[in-house]
Write the structure tokens for this entry.
Amino acid sequence: MQLRPLLRLLHPHPHLLVAFSGGLDSTVLLHQLVTLRDTHAANFHIRAMHIHHGLSPFADEWAKHCRKVCEQWNVLFEVKRVQLADDGLGVEAHARVARYQALAETLRPEEMLLTAQHLDDQCETFLLALKRGSGPAGLAAMPQRLPFGSTELIRPLLGQTRKELEAWANEHQLTWIEDESNQDDSYDRNFLRLRVLPEIQQRWPHFPQSVARSAELCGEQEQLLDELLAEQLDELVQDDGAIFIEPMFSLSAIRRAALLRRWFALHKASMPSRAALERLWDEVATSREDANPRLKFGDYEVRRYQGALYWLPITNRLGDEIVPWPAPFAPLTLPDGLGTLQCVAEGLEIRAPLDYEPVTVRFKASGQFHIVGRERRRSLKKIWQESGIPPWQRERTPLLYYGEQLIAALGVFVTQDGKATDQSCWHVDWQKENQQ
């Protein structure tokens, strides 16, 4: 196995973070990098990170093994413990999400992340995507390199088979961890690895290479579609990331779905299924005009407002929240990461509260209100509409009350009850944090 292709692949990136499980694949990858560093005068600065999932009774021993190997090879080493979420994705998916999140948090701006997936892994990934009924984007499987955070993820071993990695490990007398869970064929990937692919490769020895070519062709088709649709997508997407609905009515369903998938990709969202896209169009984009439709995608949702679709994080309902703001009116932390309120020299002008008026912040109001600059009283819903405030921002805009009187909606309006005068003027500023 020649190392020069690896050297060319990594040029000119000297700072490398290796995802090091201690198994065969990552052990070979780390050893090849160390060999390049030590024998080819490659100016590599190598760090290795072991993700401790805590799933195996041997997890602590694996971490010790990885540390020992890195000490022997003079590689900086770190263990990162993670806890798996429990939202129905399955152990494999949870572990993968936790692993990449931990690596992203650790990765330095100048570093490339290296992972050790090989040709057999690529074949398994393709077949799993085929089982799910994925289109070309899913069947493209794993690219050799792709953007990751502010830097890049590279898979240097993607063109090599597991047998080739075993040959390297045996030649250099490497030791590695054998994860007992790899023999559990209740996991889909293990089922393919242990039961399906050996039968296929016995008849067609070069099946993984053929699958890799198919995956590469699917990736090229997706890249071509990206290029062909980029200009139209740019015309459809607003500065705030929303996508216009009306121009998509004249498009074929296939083209519309392709554009919507790329809109999801702009928001770094998981690709929706065909059924999910159909629901999005039928239940959200084209629902009746007076509806306030929404469709959930994990921790996010798509909502419609003024002829556009918005990708938004799902937030907590704050309608019942009442937050006291007692004198002397120190900076007030708002709930759910909405920021702080504070009295400042310049800001929203309102009258100061009287001594007997308790000051609170709330997030809902009923009735009609006379706001500054308008002749008549209006319902709050009408005021929001006239002010161009989307429904999800209405639910998260702090309403300042003196007693039971609505004084102001921060950043939107002041009521006549809260109008500042020459004798009484208060300045309040809302420092937003996670306002959407």
Remarks:
- The chain has a mean pLDDT of 91.
- The CA atoms of residues 339 and 433 lie 5 Å apart.
- Residues 207-236 form the longest helix (30 residues).
- The first strand starts at residue 15 and ends at 19.
